[in-house]
Amino acid sequence: MPDARTAGRPDDCWAGRPAFPDQRYSDLDDLESFFYVLAYIIHVYDSQGVSHSIPDVFEEWIEYGQDKRILAKLKKCFLVMPTIPREFSDRWPGAYLELFHDYRRFVENVYRQKDLVIIGRSADGRDGLKTLRLRADDHYDYVLGLFDKAISTLE
Predict the structure, then answer these.
(1) How far apart are CA 19 and CA 84, in angstroms?
(2) What is the four-CA torsion angle of 56, 61, 67, 71, rounded to 10 degrees?
(3) pLDDT 10s digit of each residue in the chain, 155 long?
(4) How far is CA 101 from CA 5, 6, 27, 39, in A?
(5) C-alpha triplet 104, 106, 111: angle, nearest 5°
(6) Cα–Cα distance between 80 and 53 in angstroms, integer?
(7) Which 3-state string (H, E, C) describes the chain?
(8) Interatomic CA distance for residues 83 and 22, integer angstroms
(9) Closest by alpha carbon to 115, among 9, 24, 21, 13?
(10) Deepest of 21, 45, 125, 139, by most Cβ within 10 A of its Cβ?
């Protein structure tokens, strides 16, 4: 794994880029990074904890971790993938897969909001960043709700 002090890590938020242009790390970065941890677990392990080979997509994240631009493109592609390939999804109960897809939609939506602000196409302009920052509790509550729903389905 690349040195975390000098390169992007596979679990970094999108290309290790903080959510906001002023480089302040935020709750959104934490939630996005945790999504990548979850994605890794679902793709590399099965529901019994048995390890399988690391899929190419994660090998590429590790290989290109030194180049944050390439890593950003790889993670952006991963976010918009429509589904988990059957070889991975067959290893997990439906509740976990639903959690993964719902969480990915959340991360993708936040990513799009951040990107629109950063490239200057958000209707809210810079206020959009402030709005996102002020909703930190809502973001955590939403993601925790996704996990609570998955857990309750399995009980």
Answers:
(1) 26
(2) 100
(3) 333 333 345 555 544 454 445 555 678 888 988 998 999 999 999 999 999 999 988 899 888 888 888 888 888 888 888 778 888 889 999 999 999 999 999 999 888 877 777 666 656 656 667 777 788 899 999 999 999 999 999 87
(4) 30, 31, 20, 10
(5) 95
(6) 23
(7) CCCCCCCCCCCCCHHHCCCCCCCCCCHHHHHHHHHHHHHHHHHHECCCCCECCCCHHHHHHHHCCCCHHHHHHHHHHHHHCCCCCHHHHCCCCHHHHHHHHHHHHHHHHHHHHHHHHHCCCCCCCCHHHHHHHHCHHHHHHHHHHHHHHHHHHHC
(8) 33
(9) 21
(10) 139
Q: How far apart are CA 78 and CA 27, in angstroms?
A: 21
Q: What is the pLDDT of residues 61-75, one digit of tens each?
A: 888 888 888 888 888
Distance CA 24, CA 145 (A): 26
As given in the structure block, the two tokens for residue 13 are 């938020």
Residue with tokens 């402030």: 130
